[in-house]
């Protein structure tokens, strides 16, 4: 009886393999980070840097020191968003410290994602077939599942006089966070988040270089 069961199982698996081999599936690939992770990081950067107030330095020439961003993988995006934020506030970014009136140091102590999962239900279970080395996996059956991926950022800024590096202002302890949650309740999946994931109209800032005005 055991041998009949084993032969039957092997026949079913072989037939299934032949059936699947006749099906075509589209080619897919994944980036190193998922789109959700990239949205988490970019949103944290934009929200954190956007909170810093540099309006008192409108019209001033600024040189930016990025030395303290070296450990961060997303340093180029931080730099781009920061310079865009300064431009929106009317500051003039110089490439040479000798031409600047002020120096701004940007620090980023935290810039990362994290995840946690809560599930009530049956986890995925491997079931070995008798007299074979093949396992058949029963997929998980979640009655309730919550997978939350979060992004965190912590920023600080030092404003110094370019002439003698005397401290002028310290903007410290700016923290930003965002989250994306996948829910499953009674086998029905849905999601919630606090990020702009839909197509939307962007904003524009126009500069009049000759007069120095912004609109």
In short:
Helices cover 24% and strands 40% of the residues. The protein has 215 residues and is of the alpha+beta class. It has one domain (33-195): Rossmann fold.
How are the elements arranged and paired?
Blueprint: H1 2-21, H2 35-51, E1 61-65, H3 75-88, E2 92-94, E3 102-122, E4 125-128, E5 135-138, E6 141-161, E7 167-185, E8 188-193, E9 207-208, E10 213-214
Parallel strand pairs: 1-2, 1-3
Antiparallel strand pairs: 3-6, 4-5, 6-7, 7-8, 9-10
3D structure, described in words:
This protein is α+β, with helices and mostly antiparallel strands and 215 residues long. It has one domain: Rossmann fold. Helix content is 24%, strand content 40%. The protein contains three helices and ten strands, in the order ααβαβββββββββ. It has a six-stranded mixed β-sheet. A two-stranded antiparallel ribbon has the order 4-5. A hairpin with a 4-residue loop joins strand 9 and strand 10. The longest helix has 20 residues. The chain is elongated. It starts with a helix and ends with a strand.
């Amino acid at each position: 009886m055991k041998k009949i069961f084993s032969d039957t199982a092997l026949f079913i698996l072989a037939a299934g393999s032949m059936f699947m081999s006749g099906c075509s599936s589209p080619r897919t690939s994944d980036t190193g980070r998922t789109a959700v992770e990239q949205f988490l990081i970019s949103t944290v950067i934009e929200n954190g840097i956007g909170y810093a107030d540099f309006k008192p330095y409108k019209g001033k020439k600024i040189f930016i020191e990025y030395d303290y961003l070296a450990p961060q993988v997303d340093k180029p995006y931080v730099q781009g968003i920061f310079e865009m934020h300064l431009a929106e506030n009317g500051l003039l970014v110089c490439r040479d410290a000798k031409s600047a009136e002020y120096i701004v140091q940007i620090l980023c102590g935290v810039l990362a994602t994290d995840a946690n999962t809560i599930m009530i239900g049956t986890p995925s279970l491997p079931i070995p077939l008798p007299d074979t080395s093949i396992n058949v996996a029963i997929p998980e059956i979640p009655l309730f599942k919550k997978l939350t991926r979060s992004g965190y950022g912590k920023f600080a800024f030092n404003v110094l006089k370019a002439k003698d590096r005397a401290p002028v202002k310290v903007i410290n302890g700016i923290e930003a966070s965002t989250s994306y949650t996948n829910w499953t309740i009674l086998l029905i999946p849905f999601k919630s988040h606090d990020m702009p994931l839909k197509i939307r109209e962007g904003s524009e800032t126009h500069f009049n270089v000759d007069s120095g005005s912004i609109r």
